[in-house]
Write a structure and sequence with these properties.
The chain contains seven helices and 16 strands. It is of the alpha+beta class.
């Protein structure tokens, strides 16, 4: 039987409801003309409200056909339309996308809406997989997807246009996958994280290297690890955990190897900060270099565009 998402989803602060043609003016005024909103989605700013109306007609036609299920994101306190969230069904899989007006950023509304939709997906036995794509330059959206329970499966290179242009950008691929019941045969799925060591008191040096220079973001560690020294850094599928080792010795042979874009610029940034690189043997046509973190641990960088 085809899946049929609910017409309405309610959260503590939001009402997700079917959009109507009467929403055109609010969509146009609140976010459809804002280039800061549209720079990370496939469509560009609307030049006039007629474009918004055409968009809504297409959206509602797809809903009538059962091809796509959009909801207007409405704030319950005052009825203001904040954005839109949509799921597109493909048999037992679905993909989700959303957009939110700029004044409502940073207040948890996108997370609240995405979490409500993910909860519906988890409650549907016929739905096996929920996916989303996120521009690699949009860490705020990545955090929304992670808080909704989706996990980054990797980077898809030049996989999506953005802002109404023909320019292709790299995207992070996120997914929630229903566990098998009964469980399937044991298999290794992916590398969850890399664990490195540092001496006690090295937290600020680790932040300067992994966060400030390499561009990972520091994420909170689980409550079970409260009181233990150490830091976690992530960006998409790259996860580096740095823990304290009392009898610390740097890892000069064993090391993580990271594929990067902007290879030359990154090596120059590292060199300027005192982390000069040493070229390594080119393998499969890709340039490689070794650098060391502030504690002497080796880190390999591989040119993903070479």
């Amino acid at each position: 039987m085809p899946l049929h998402p609910p017409d309405e989803l309610l959260t503590a602060r939001l009402r997700l409801r079917p959009p109507t043609m009467d929403d055109a003016e609010a969509i146009y005024a609140h976010y459809a003309t804002d280039p800061q909103v549209t720079r990370f989605v496939v469509w560009g700013p609307h030049a006039n409200v007629g474009i918004t109306r055409d968009f809504l007609r297409e959206l509602l036609t797809g809903r009538d056909r059962g091809e796509r299920w959009p909801w207007a994101i409405e704030r319950r306190a005052d009825g203001r339309l904040l954005g839109m969230i949509e799921v597109r069904l493909h048999g037992a899989t679905a993909d989700v996308g959303y957009v939110l007006e700029r004044p409502s950023w940073g207040q948890g509304y996108a997370t609240e809406a995405a979490h409500a939709l993910a909860e519906w997906a988890r409650s549907e036995p016929g739905l096996s997989r929920l996916t989303a794509l996120c521009d690699v330059r949009n860490p705020a959206s990545a955090r929304v997807l992670e808080k909704a329970g989706l996990r980054c499966e990797g980077v898809r290179r030049r996989a999506m246009t953005h802002g109404g242009t023909d320019v292709l950008v790299d995207v992070l691929s996120y997914a929630w996958v229903r566990p098998l019941d009964p469980p399937g045969e044991p298999q290794l799925l992916e590398l969850d994280h890399v664990q490195l060591a540092m001496p006690r008191g090295g937290e600020e040096q680790a932040r300067a290297f992994w966060r400030n220079l390499l561009g990972l973001r520091e994420v909170p560690r689980p409550a079970e690890m409260a009181g233990r020294p150490g830091l976690w850094f992530e960006r998409g599928a790259v996860r580096v955990h740095v823990g304290v080792e009392e009898d610390f010795r740097p890892a000069r042979k064993a090391h993580p190897a990271l594929r990067v874009t902007g290879y030359d610029a990154l090596l120059a940034r590292l060199a300027a900060a005192g982390h000069a690189s040493k070229p390594a043997e080119t393998l499969a046509g890709a340039r490689r270099a070794h650098v060391h973190d502030p504690f002497g641990n080796r880190v390999e960088l591989i040119d993903a565009e070479g």
